[in-house]
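User: Sequence recovery, please. Input:
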């Protein structure tokens, strides 16, 4: 597929782009079957019941998982980055969050970036999140602070880091507080820090959807309060020589 001007503008502005139904259905179904088969073999999923202690930290190599990251997707990454990007990991990672119950809120801990920001403003890497099954809102999808990639290059962000810039802001500071669940959830609407528009985005959608994330964006894991497991694949892509 070819990205439109709106897609490119959204990615550069927000550091996050949601592409719907990008992965062909047959590839998604094959990947899902491979994951479920492995979970069943390990006794992590038996007759629809989860045995969380048996869910593996990492899955082995499966050609069905590799095929999700097809040439059309990789071409999008190169177009956004303006150069060829290479996978940072030998194989895609499975992101699996069984049902957890409880109440959902924007998380207050675990916020991080996976790659140090470069000294100059520019894409240092792109992380791909591919939905292998439908992921409902509040269903365990990764949450990201869209727009936070730009904070690295503001005066306060460059001097003290993105975490400090967020903690120092009276609104964004709710991201790091265990109290005020309702205040954190209000961050799902746009807010501003240091002149940069930010918004907490939950990566939900339909099987075959893809999220592309600038690796300078701060993000965190979230609770799965639905009755269905969150099932995604992820891979990080970096310029040659980084990693």
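Assistant: Recovered sequence (243 residues):
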């Amino acid at each position: 597929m070819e990205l439109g001007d709106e897609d490119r503008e959204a990615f550069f502005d927000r550091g996050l782009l949601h592409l719907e139904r990008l992965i062909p259905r047959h590839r998604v179904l094959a990947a899902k079957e491979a994951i479920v088969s492995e979970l069943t073999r390990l006794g992590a999923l038996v007759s629809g019941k989860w045995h969380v202690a048996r869910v593996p930290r990492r899955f082995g190599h499966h050609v069905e998982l590799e095929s999700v990251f097809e040439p059309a997707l990789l071409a999008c990454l190169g177009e956004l980055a303006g150069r060829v990007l290479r996978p940072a990991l030998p194989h895609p990672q499975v992101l699996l969050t069984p049902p957890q119950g409880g109440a959902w809120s924007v998380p207050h801990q675990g916020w991080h970036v996976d790659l140090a920001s470069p000294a100059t403003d520019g894409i240092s890497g792109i992380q791909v999140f591919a939905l292998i099954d439908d992921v409902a809102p509040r269903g365990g999808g990764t949450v990201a602070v869209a727009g936070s990639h730009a904070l690295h290059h503001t005066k306060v962000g460059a001097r003290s880091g993105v975490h400090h810039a967020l903690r120092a802001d009276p609104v964004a500071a709710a991201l790091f507080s265990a109290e005020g669940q309702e205040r954190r959830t209000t961050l799902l609407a746009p807010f501003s820090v240091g002149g940069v528009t930010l918004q907490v985005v939950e990566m939900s959608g339909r099987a075959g959807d893809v999220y592309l994330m600038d690796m300078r964006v701060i993000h965190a894991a979230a609770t799965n309060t639905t009755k269905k497991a969150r099932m995604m694949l992820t891979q990080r892509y970096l310029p040659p020589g980084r990693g």
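The chain has one domain: 5-238.
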